[in-house]
Amino acid sequence: NAGVTQTPKFQVLKTGQSMTLQCAQDMNHNSMYWYRQDPGMGLRLIYYSASEGTTDKGEVPNGYNVSRLNKREFSLRLESAAPSQTSVYFCASILSGNSYEQYFGPGTRLTVT
Amino acid sequence: DAKTTQPPSMDCAEGRAANLPCNHSTISGNEYVYWYRQIHSQGPQYIIHGLKNNETNEMASLIITEDRKSSTLILPHATLRDTAVYYCIVRVATGATNKLIFGTGTLLAVQP
Question: Is pLDDT at B36 greater than 60 in this prediction?
Fold first, then answer.
């Protein structure tokens, strides 16, 4: 099993450009999450999908959109990137509401200039 | 979910036990204590969790005080590879959301 994979690993954008971060898991997990981590900070939840077909806002959803494409894939879109969105983005998944271990991907390092 | 307080950093000698404290004085009866760690900007990794009893697994032990207002994560024989940021998280275990609220954690530096 590859676990949780994220693409790309690194990305540099100019202000105003758009892009989509991809996340996939091969563990048949129901719930998926997008977090961001700024330097010296803990992770903050952007959006999550408790199950296929549903998405909900987390702590810091402004400037982002998400799509739960199917059970395996959960994408994060920046429509008009801003320097404040420079961060490391982590995707995670968990089997179900009664599970306890979230599995995290390796992260995408995004710089917006 | 209850708020947690952890020291920003700690040192530990290689081979010795690392004891990482966490205060969660506002914890509710149905909230679990979780520990994750993050090694050098990798994705966080689950370590252990507990409700009121002490727990042990192959990675660590979790000691929760009787009043549940604080806990300690113990790495029994720390190695250099245990150098990481350790996050203590309190959360309700039920329901479909499973949202984790990360603080800034404790940076554990294991010294040779």
Answer: yes
